Amino acid sequence: MLKQNITKVSIVAVASIGALLTGVFLPQLTNNNKISQNAIEKLNPDLDVTKFVSLPPEQRRSKLESAIKTGKSLNTSRARYILANDLIQQGQEELAIAQLKNLEQEYTALAPYVLVKRAQAYEQIGETDKAQEVWEEVLKTYPEEAVVAEALYVLGKQNPEYWDEAIAKFPGYPTTVKIAQEKLKQNPNQPQLLLLIAKYGFHVPEYGTVLEQLRTKYASELTPEDWEMVAFGYWEKQDYPKGALAYQKAPKTPQNLYRHARGLWLGRKTKESREAYQTLINTFPNGGEDTALGLIRLSRLVDRQDAIPYLDRVIANFPSHAPEAMLDKSKLLDQLDSAQSASLTRQQLLKEYNNSDAAAKLRWELAEQAAKGGDLQAAWKWAQQLTVNNPDSELAAQAGFWVGKWAQQLGQTEDGKKAFEYMILRYPHSYYAWRSAVMLGWPVGDFTTVRDLSPEVVHTKERDPLPFGSETLRELYQIGQDRDAWKQWQVEFEERMNPTVAQQYTDGVLRIGVGDNLDGIWMLTSLSQRKNPEEIAEYKALKERRTYWQTLYPFPYLETIVKWSDKRELNTVLVTALIRQESRFMPKIKSVVGATGLMQIMPETGKEAAQKINLVSYDLENVNDNVNLGTYYFDFTHKEYQNNSMLAVASYNAGPNAVSSWLKRFGFNDADAFVEKIPYPETRGYVESVFENYWNYLQIYNPEVSQLMERHYAKYNKNK
Q1: How many CB atoms lie within 10 A of CB 146?
Q2: 333 near 342, Cβ under 8 Å?
Q3: What is the pLDDT of residues 131-183, one digit of tens each?
Q4: Across-strand partners of 404?
Q5: pLDDT at 47
Q6: Largest CA distance in the chain
Q7: Which of 713, 185, 46 is nearest to 422 (CA)?
Q8: Closest CA to 457 of 259, 705, 122
Q9: Residue 39 belongs to what H/E stretch?
Q10: CA–CA separation, 50 vs 60, rounded Å?
Q11: Is 79 in contact with 67 (CB distance < 8 Å)?
């Protein structure tokens, strides 16, 4: 089959000169199909070295050496440090030591780190006496700097007092967590060290075991504050039932009581959950958001008639949650055959809380009911009202797309076109913006053509200053020392349970920098849940950064993805989008049912696929093997449905039998309508998320789509 729009993938990290319009990153535009190494070499050697720290070490070496020759400056100091660190990683320690010589005197921002790198280089070439001298110099000269924990760790192998000092002064530093682990191997009966790991060691593989030891073996020794820390650990690891048990013993705050009740419900202990919610609302009748949520949750766990008083309490006392309570109440009244009261409640909701998310949900429910009944005019009306009155609702993009779709079906072609154009402007990063672009005829691929596209990818990566943290942290991040920046951050990140927007954003960026994409992406996207207007404004400002979108949509393992996508004749960007949704690019991640790695391959599926391609030996945790097998299966699901990528993606998630049954049940006259009818909420969300990922990767990294977006915004601004 011939490829359409055949282009190349360029794996390049260069400075972008694109524009940022209404939160849409428009990357560097180029008429070339590929930015080659020659193009990189033409970059000015005096360019700020932070602009190419994301290049692989072998590609940036000549540029660093050129920058070093320009004379003494912050730029040259940075170049020397980066190059020295690269050389250490490459086993060229003598050259690294030469670069580090006296650098601490020039590069004061990272002076203690310079000494640490020098000591590590001496360690690696076996010059232990010189290393010892430098370690002692670190400890003497910079006793209060967190990186001193590296010196304390090495020196503590001979003198245990140094390890105790690290634990006392820098408990959050990852090397100190390592010290705690090693001390526990020597003597497991040390609950204070377990508590240290529970508070700071979220990254260690044995973290869950540590929590279990504290919960079962040392329960009688834990204070309420200790229990809160343990509970938070369970909550972070999404072990909600055990988190609920720990929160029961934590200080009696509204949030802790709410999480106790919520965790019980998630653990399917309905009776105990009801009792816990009752305790919450009795203990804190005016406890703010947690009490309001508790009342709403409790109303869903009791008999219909008994539920209404709880909802009335929310309506009367908690204005921010009153709309949700009204919507729930209207549904209960319908179920209790009180149609008139239900109608009055809905009218009250639309009148008093016209701009609420609950009003948006009501409007969309009414739109869907009208469409199902064949009244497209009424459906269009309700959807349009939603886009006007609830533009920030999570349903607004969906409603906006169907405003255009229903307008077309009603013969209002021009209105439909305007709706689709507005969709791309107002909700540019949504799945429905991609569907709108398809309706407008943009060359971004439809469900039946996207497989055969090979979009050009110009892989840019920039770094804006972090919004939070010390000068040391910001400098480490700015020069691409992600692992050391993450270590430094573990000491500085004190408000883990209730971070500010800036702290949470910083944490997400640094997690992604060290490959913790699962939690890092969650930290960034969950900022959307903020309710405080000031926090919402702060989050929106962060989203205006082009680097926000580059960080949110990373491109790890791109060479491997390109290789196997080309082998299977699959759209590389679509495969990348699917991997992002499946595993967040985590090679060793496993689901509760055993699906493993980047594309979440089930062991039996991997075995069958390996037999088909004569792959005798493989490891699902190996990136190359996993993507090889995953793309084979993705190719298979495409062939099952005549290269319809929407059905292939749905089948990848739910299985071919489920998709075949849906086709028989719903038919396939309209692909968009079919997606809306998918009965598995997980699969429907999965389909939309994969293609939303695909669309965002195009916007961020594909010059053609970036240019289309730029022109679209220019046209809009001209006509304003």
Answers
A1: 25
A2: yes
A3: 999 999 999 999 999 999 999 999 999 999 999 999 999 999 999 999 999 99
A4: none
A5: 67
A6: 87
A7: 713
A8: 705
A9: helix 37-41
A10: 11
A11: yes
